[in-house]
Amino acid sequence: MSAKNKLTLSVQYADPRLQESITRPKIRRWVQAALFAPAELTIRFVDAEEGRELNREYRGKDYATNVLTFAYNEGEEALPDDAPTQADIILCTDVLEKEAAEQKKTVEEHTAHLIVHGVLHAQGYDHMDDAEAAEMEGLETEILAELGYADPYAE
């Protein structure tokens, strides 16, 4: 592992439904593929109730969403260049499983995509405008292809 991709990873299954299929080694592989710098990350799987509560409290939106990224050193200018990205990435199992079925994807494919998406957010990528969205989606597609997954944005 290169120094630039040094990773400290915590995986929490507050909602244990995916614990057997979405294993820590898979998650580490997906996270590592999307990292461009050292990171200290927590990936947490939650149910719809906790997902809704977090989305309501931190984003003012009263519904559970698929992935929430809490990037703790985003925009911090006083940090040294080699300071690790620090973030919590929350995945809502209920939403993730529902979206995978609707999109005719496996839960693993969709989870890999959402983790890559969350890790990119943790590193400052966003999709607030068309140019940012195109850049972020391009990176996601490239990273997922390297991992052996199909383009998540293909029709």
TrEMBL record:
GO terms for cellular component: cytoplasm. GO terms for molecular function: metalloendopeptidase activity; RNA endonuclease activity; zinc ion binding. PROSITE patterns: UPF0054. The keyword Cell membrane does not apply. This is Endoribonuclease YbeY. InterPro entries: MetalPrtase_cat_dom_sf_prd (IPR023091), YbeY (IPR002036), YbeY_CS (IPR020549). Zn(2+) binds at H117, H121, H127. Its cofactor is Zn(2+). The lineage of its organism: Bacteria, Pseudomonadati, Pseudomonadota, Betaproteobacteria, Burkholderiales. It comes from Duganella callida. Keywords: Cytoplasm, Endonuclease, Hydrolase, Metal-binding, Nuclease, Ribosome biogenesis, rRNA processing, Zinc. GO terms for biological process: rRNA processing.
